[in-house]
Write a structure and sequence with these properties.
Length: about 140
């Protein structure tokens, strides 16, 4: 059970890194363009300051990819520091599950089916990891 829990935790951690890398790659190859900058060249008020919509979108897109990479790396580091007889941390699994719930929510309301399916698969893997960790402690 411990080995399976660690494998599932590792899969979701690596998946975060992989999706973060893909998103960052797509950001620079598909989402940065003069055409988009022209279409999104509007100003809105954000926290009392005028902000360009294109710049906000670019910043959020880039940060999403980079933060997914950081989440995955952080969870791999947590795993690496566990003793051989330890199960993955319950708190770490809960954090990943919460993130995956929001992935499903965003997919359902904003992005589409593939994000919902991917989030659901990750949720299934991490939920199984969590159950194994709880039963093993």
């Amino acid at each position: 059970m411990r080995r399976l829990a660690k494998i599932l935790y590792t899969i979701n951690s690596i998946t975060c890194i992989f999706i973060g890398l893909l998103h960052t790659h797509a950001h620079y190859t598909s989402l940065v363009s003069e055409e988009l900058a022209e279409v999104m060249n509007h100003t809105i008020l954000v926290t009392g300051t005028n902000a360009n919509v294109y710049n906000l979108w670019q910043g959020m897109s880039l940060m999403m990819g980079l933060l997914l990479i950081i989440v995955g790396l952080s969870h791999l580091l947590i795993l690496k520091q566990l003793a051989k007889e330890d199960f993955p941390p319950i708190g770490g699994s809960l954090i990943l599950i919460l993130m995956l719930v929001f992935v499903i929510y965003a997919g359902y309301y904003f992005f589409g089916g593939w994000q919902v399916y991917g989030g659901a698969m990750g949720l299934l893997l991490q939920g199984t990891c969590l159950i194994l960790s709880i039963r093993g402690k």
